[in-house]
Amino acid sequence: MKRNFIIGAAAMTAANAYADGTDETIKAVLIGCGGRGTGAAANFLKNPNTKIIAVGDVFPDMTERALQNFSLPPEAGFTGFDAYRKAIDYAVANGAVYAILTTPPGFRPIHYKYAVEKGLNCFLEKPCCVDAYGYRMLMEVNKLADEKNLKVGVGMQRRHQTVYLDGIRQILEEKKYGDIITARVYWNQGGIPVRGTGEEPTEMQKQIRNRYYFVWLCGDNILEQHVHNLDIGNIILGNWDPLYHPVSCNGMGGRSTRYIPKPTPRVGEIFGYHAVEFEYADGRRMYSQSRQVAGTWSCVNEFVDGTKGSGQVARRKERGERLLDPYDVEHTDLITAIKENTRYNEGWAGATASMIGIMGRMATYSGQVVTWDQAVNEGKTYMIYENHDALTLDSDPPVLPNADGLYDAPIPGVSKNV
To answer: With helix as H, strand as E and coil as C, how does 55-89 read?
Structure first.
């Protein structure tokens, strides 16, 4: 089996060998101080001899809260769209070797590029980009990271979760279901809350506080949440090859439920549901559903169909079985690779899984068949990449409300440049 990671339990044991205090502390900078960022930092800090030494966020209140959480001096905190540069520079000057990049994913390629240029090993929260331009940037930075012998982890924790690793081994090595024909992957959940106060003084602030509703920030739910399931389906069909991907897809989706109970400027621009059929070069398919609609069937899972039967990918947890937290293990595996100088770059798989979601979104937004090459080379750019650091919370975001106070959204069969 092809793997670009260390098995979680073994890595946790190896990392504990450094707990005697003789090993140099792994110092990290945190970029993105919201709930996922502080959560990722807490997972990182569960490993021995680790320390957060600098933080950065676009919002001053988030930076201040992080300074307090990690007992840092004021000079270790930075705010603004260029906070990532200032925090990384400060951290590198003070011995950091590790960057935790957990802002909304639209920012990820920009931050990743700078961190690698400065020589930092990186943990990237998923997804890793929101558009084709970001994907192409990621691929170039992945090459640079390999050239500089830097280690890269991605927050796709199923790759570090015992029940998934065992289940995938049973499917790929033991042929539990025979030869796999199709994968079926789901992230169907209830509605998502509107975040922020609704009283933010600028459109930029309102959108970033409520990032899950805007494509330039989150990529839509087919990418933001569903990337986990797409990654697992792709592993099963590609046997751990981090560059394996479908060659085309078609799909359908819509946003009618975003207007329930009534239209409001805060419903954003994303779809409420997507269903996509991904086709691979060998003719096999991955069937995908992602939905955020209250009162509907909930399913967050992955299944396969083979020549000897069908079943769930992850094995069942045994009664009384105690398992390591995969959110902890993904950091432990990255830290172990750093200390043992093991080749380790999940950035390739993170980029691939993210681009699969982007291609699927293009199909649902347009209502057309979309090929991988079309998606990579012609996909719409949503994020602001040019002059990014000059942005402020008073700047206009890439999308603005229309005359009715609502956000225009793609119309399948009509929209082309999506």
So the answer is: EEECCHHHHHHHHHHCCCCHHHEEECCCHHHHHHH
Q: In sequence order, which residues have a C-beta less than 8 Å from that of residue 403 and are 6 or more positions away?
A: none
Q: Which of 388, 382, 350 is nearest to 58 (CA)?
A: 388
Q: Are 249 and 364 in contact (CB under 8 A)?
A: no
The answer to whether the beta carbons of residues 127 and 56 sit under 8 Å apart is no
> Residue 290 in contact with residue 225, Cβ under 8 Å?
yes
Structure tokens at 200: 């933010």
Strand segments, DSSP code E, in 102-216 are 121-124, 152-154, 180-189
Matching residue, tokens 């990392």 = 15
Question: What secondary structure does DSSP assign to 313-379, as a single string?
Answer: SSPPPPTT-----HHHHHHHHHHHHHHHT---BTHHHHHHHHHHHHHHHHHHHH-S-EEHHHHHHHP
- Residues whose CB is less than 8 angstroms from the CB of residue 408 and which lie 6 or more positions away in sequence, other chains included: 269, 399, 402
Of 223, 216, 210, nearest to 253 (Cα)?
A: 223
pLDDT in tens, 401-417: 999 888 999 999 999 88
pLDDT score for 260: 63
Q: Average pLDDT for residues 392-409, to the nearest whole number?
A: 92
Q: What confidence score (pLDDT) does residue 109 get?
A: 98
Q: Look at the block and give the residue holding tokens 């110092």.
A: 27
CA 31 to chain CA mean position, Å: 14
The 8-class DSSP code of residue 234 comes to: H
Contact 234, 280 (CB under 8 A): no
Residues 6+ apart with CB under 8 A from 201: none
Cα 313 to the chain's mean position, in Å? 21
Q: How far apart are CA 120 and CA 100, in angstroms?
A: 10
Task: Assess contact for 283 and 180: CB atoms under 8 A.
Answer: no
- Taking the C-alpha atoms of residue 209 and residue 189, their distance in angstroms, rounded to an integer, is 21
pLDDT number for residue 314: 98
Q: Provide the percentage of residues in the chain whose pLDDT is more than 70.
A: 93
SS3 292: strand
